[in-house]
Amino acid sequence: MSEDGTEPAGEQASQPGAAMGLDLGHLEGSGAIPERFTNPGLPPHVHRLADHDELAARRAERQVATLFGISMVATVIFLVAYFAIDQNTYQFIPGIGQANLSNIVLGVSLGLSLLCIGLGAVHWAKTLMPDTEVTEQRHPQRSSPEARDQAVSTIMAGGEASQLARRPLIKYTLGGALGLFALPLVVQLAGSLGPLPKAALSTTFWRKGMRLMRDPELTPIKASDVTIGSVFHVMPEGIDKSDHLLEEKAKAAVLLIGMDPADIKVPKERSWGHDGIVAYSKICTHVGCPVGLYEHRTHHLLCPCHQSTFDVTQDCQVIFGPAHRPLPQLKITVDAEGYLVADSPFREAVGPSFWERG
Amino acid sequence: MKALGSRRRHPAAIAVLLLLGLVVTGGLYSLLAPKPAQAAVATTDDVGAGTKLFLANCATCHGISGHGSQTGPTLAGVGAAAVDFQVGTGRMPLAQPGVQAARSDKVMFTDQQIASLAAYVATLGPGPSVPDSQYTNGDGNIAHGNELFKVNCAMCHNFAGSGGALTRGKYAPSLRNISGKQIFEAMATGPESMPVFNDNNLSPADKNDIISYLHELDKNKNPGGLNLGNLGPVSEGMFIWVFGLSLMVGAAVWLGSKAA
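YS: structure for the whole thing
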């Protein structure tokens, strides 16, 4: 870009007979809108510096050539660097730190090379290529009346020759055949949307008596292991034998939290837990992200996707963010050996809302 | 001055002025903003038994007997590991009140002093002790550590261990280049907002696997380019909105403008 001249204020020639200037004082109008507004036409063409100044044109030429030249140099740097720089060289780069030298040099040189070609081309077009405004009229789309009549008569003659009007049986059966043929396409399209989910959205892998297992080792958890302030990431017993492992895991994930029973404010939450140990679905009720960010001082449970925050002391009520429902609680108890087990499946659907759930 | 005046209608003038204003404001702020006062720490004599150190440095908030006060929690049952972690990472003594104590390179005590402080606090109640070096040396199973890290840690500390935001200004700190002992102690004691991962949940060998994984992450080299903190889509999206979009707008303006 030329750094010398400021932008010349676009010298707009005032259009005679067009809009009235603000400095022309008050003029009594007739109050009526004119029949047609006159076409103000294009503003007069303003010549560029390079159009009438040969020196400026030569300068623009040099600038374009310099940009193309930089591009060539950068490409040569790329080619040299490709062979010269070892793949495993690490070098301190200001602003980035230790980084792979080869990748950085290759990326920067190739980027610069392409960028300069583009900059040069644009600068060339803007300063030297012709810039006069050209108006090209659209050709009429309507055919001539003769051609239109001829087209109609050709179609009518074809219909007459095929005896379509005389033999209505063919006409109606052809219509029926073509119409029916559309159905298989529609049926395939609807069928390929997949089977109906049925109850899969409302149920999870959890059943009464299933042990709570550590994820990912799938080892059972003793109630005495869960000290106050600790958190276990839990999967149901036997989930590794499930036919649809990933689908089931995505619904059955549970967060087990050890709390001081005195901190729990809701009687239902206390009675569904065991001695201050409570289990909640880890699937956010907003759009189903895993809610795992538990702060053991504030008892806030935060979803990392959209910052929905649940208060574990209040039965996981939503206290912030876009989620609408509290996280479903899993009723737990201990079995004869002291391991934590589910006392019932989830009583409500886990995860985000869906149509039938409301 | 005349040359400057003649350029005041240049299209870049507004951008240059804005930038100048921002730089001046920022520079002035950093010069004039109040600095956190440096707490004068009495380097007590080498006799420095834990009790004396505690009374001199910690009792103001944690109470004379270490059972807490309105400004600080009780230390009964936090164990020696908690002291070693909080003091050893420079979080305690607290530099200034806030939502969360920040890690600081300025550790106020020597290892010897920390050890005696930890010994004193450990007498207040049973709690996790400073881990044995065989569980913190980071020569465990890296793949298993990766699996455990993704389930138990990554939601707060980020898949690359770069840390992340929590509620109301709290945050999970970065885990890059942290010693194995401090990682172990954090899991065992649950500092700040972090829940506890006791030895029944993640066994000492499991913890060592996680440490091994994190140390392996530290060895990763940058293949080139800005990593923008490895914070994921938020920082990357912000970068492209601010820089990428303004570049695009600039290019569009340039393409549409008429040459002089």
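YS: worth flagging: Chain B touches chain A at residues 6-7, 9-11, 147-148, 151-152, 155-156, 164, 166-167, 170, 172, 190, 192-198, 200-201, 221-226, 254-255, 258-260 (CB under 8 Å).
IM: good catch. Also Confidence is low (pLDDT under 50) at residues 35-47 of chain B.
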